Amino acid sequence: MSGFEAFVYHNGELFVENVSLKKIAEKFGTPCYIYSQSALTNAYQQFDAAFEGRDHLICYAVKANSNLAILNLLARLGSGFDIVSGGELQRVIRAGGDAQKTIFSGVGKSVNEMRMALNLNILCFNVESEAELSILNQVAKSMNKVAPVSLRVNPDVDAKTHPYISTGLKENKFGIAMDEAMEIYQSAHLYPHVRFTGIDCHIGSQLSLIEPFVEASEKMLQLFDRLKKQKFNIEHIDLGGGLGIRYNNEKPPSIKEYVSKLCSITRNIKQRLVIEPGRALVGNSGILLTRIEYLKQTPARNFAIVDAAMNDLIRPSLYDAYHEILPVEKNTIEAKNYEIVGPICETGDFLGHDRKLSVMNGDLLAIMSAGAYGMSMSSNYNTRPRAMEILVVGNQPHVIRQRESIEQIIAGEQIIAY
Ligand SMILES: *Cc1c(COP(=O)(O)O)cnc(C)c1O
Prior knowledge:
Blueprint: E1 7-10, E2 13-16, E3 19-20, H1 21-28, E4 32-36, H2 37-50, E5 56-61, H3 68-77, E6 80-83, H4 86-94, E7 102-104, H5 111-119, E8 124-127, H6 130-142, E9 147-154, E10 176-177, H7 178-186, E11 194-200, H8 211-229, E12 236-238, H9 255-265, E13 272-275, H10 279-282, E14 286-297, E15 302-306, H11 315-319, E16 325-327, E17 336-341, E18 350-357, E19 364-367, E20 388-393, E21 396-401, H12 406-410
Parallel strand pairs: 4-20, 5-6, 5-13, 6-7, 7-8, 8-9, 9-10, 9-11, 11-12, 12-13, 15-17
Antiparallel strand pairs: 1-2, 2-3, 4-14, 14-15, 14-19, 16-19, 17-18, 20-21
Helix pairs in contact: 2-3, 2-9, 5-6, 8-9
The chain binds pyridoxal-5'-phosphate.
């Protein structure tokens, strides 16, 4: 089960596992994110099984979906975590995650974030510049500690994905060029409070081809060989995340195909393999459930105005991303082509263009493949409370995040007394 299979029609009505989405909407209201525990578990186990005895660590990229219940589920399955902020580190710890299975990525770690991570003894810092390395060395020194570090190299590989989520080209802000990375490793003596334990790369997100992964992994192996010749004791090779999922008609490699490929490229080394999947773990395990508020016909178009918007799911507006949109109840009304739009005052506020649907006012729609970069990228734009989140476990929906209140949104604001 890769996720979609958790959302199926029974007698013309869409279910998540054995739970009626219509009943969830009636009980909890809309918009809400709904995740399937079995789909998520299954995706994790597919990754894990594909390593077939190879020493490995799956570090779930928390930014894809950082709900505590999701992190807790993954922690229980044995997952490690890839974090990009101190906030995410706190979430991991609160959710029962293991700091010793946590790696810290990102180009702009602050001193406070470094301190927090050193205090908790995380597994590794993925360092992205010499400037950062120098600060980390100082921070570790001030705490009388030694920071475990991988340099994130930029393998200069075209991931052939959306430019906003392509990270492995030499013109991107991410990583350190191969030759420069080699020089920094060789200058280890300048950083006595840093211990180089690994090498790392991450070339982008939503990759649907295997070749860029192959190319990047081969370059990483070359770097590993050079370091080995110079007697560096590299303990792990982190090949990043980025495996794509099917939103529409993409045909990304399967989890098994992808992991098997990484294992076969690196078959001659015994070092632990680390990967940082986000989207491929949670993307197809979740949907955004929304209700049609109004159908509106204009001379040019038909609009279905729904109660979810770009603040809930920004991917269509930001990347022109496609999400399949399914009616929760199939019916026999005449189908029309609709623009699926939210209530936000922006023309860019859409969830789908030109979708052929048989729908009426009040009908429910499921925005598919919304488990990754949905809730975690949501905002309060237009002072819209963020959606509720529900995790379906067996036959039971559990609220894993309450719907936000207006009071919560404005809690930190203050009128000034003049
Ligand atoms: C975002 C990110 C990931 C996860 O990417 P996915 O496409 O969701 O798998 C992994 N590693 C790093 C460093 C990231 O920034």
